[in-house]
Write a structure and sequence with these properties.
The chain has helices spanning about 10-20, 45-55, 75-90, 115-130, and strands at about 20-25, 30-35, 65-70, 100-105. It has a four-stranded mixed sheet, with helices on both faces. It is built from four helices and four strands, in the order αββαβαβα. About 40% of the residues lie in helices and about 15% in strands.
């Protein structure tokens, strides 16, 4: 079970992560990852304000939420998929940057997917979502 501080519970939190996050689909899942902006060199012009802002804003833990619709299956199947995803994310949440938000959406194929396939899909999706975006040539 994820700690209360690590769970997304409000629909506004889910909506913000889905709208503002980076979406990556792999196999039986789709991951929406929102990473907070890192402080750049331009914001640290003076060491005094930088220390004050860090002291005023405690770092929030990484949080996760799950979306498993009725298209995945009946209630028993949906809960099984949620339990598997929750266990997988619990192991990987500490590797995400502080303050990041992760939403994992299960596709209908997740109902028949094995635990190891879900783990592979999740690892791949998180790795791609965390990688810097490359510019596409037109």
């Amino acid at each position: 079970m994820l700690a209360a501080a690590q769970r997304l519970r409000r629909s506004t939190d889910f909506a913000a992560a889905v709208r503002g996050g980076r979406r990556v689909g792999r196999g039986a899942i789709v991951v929406h990852l929102t990473v907070p902006p890192t402080t750049g060199a331009s914001t640290t012009t003076s060491p005094e304000p930088a220390r004050d802002t860090v002291a005023e804003q405690p770092s929030a833990p990484a949080r996760a939420g799950f979306v498993v619709s009725k298209a995945v299956g009946n209630a028993v199947v949906r809960n099984k998929v949620k339990r598997r995803l929750r266990a997988l994310v619990r192991e990987r949440l500490s590797a995400l940057p502080l303050g990041s938000t992760l939403v994992v959406r299960a596709l209908p194929a997740a109902a028949e997917a094995s635990y190891s396939r879900l783990a592979t899909d999740l690892d791949s999706a998180i790795a791609v979502a965390r990688a810097p975006r490359e510019r596409r040539s037109r």
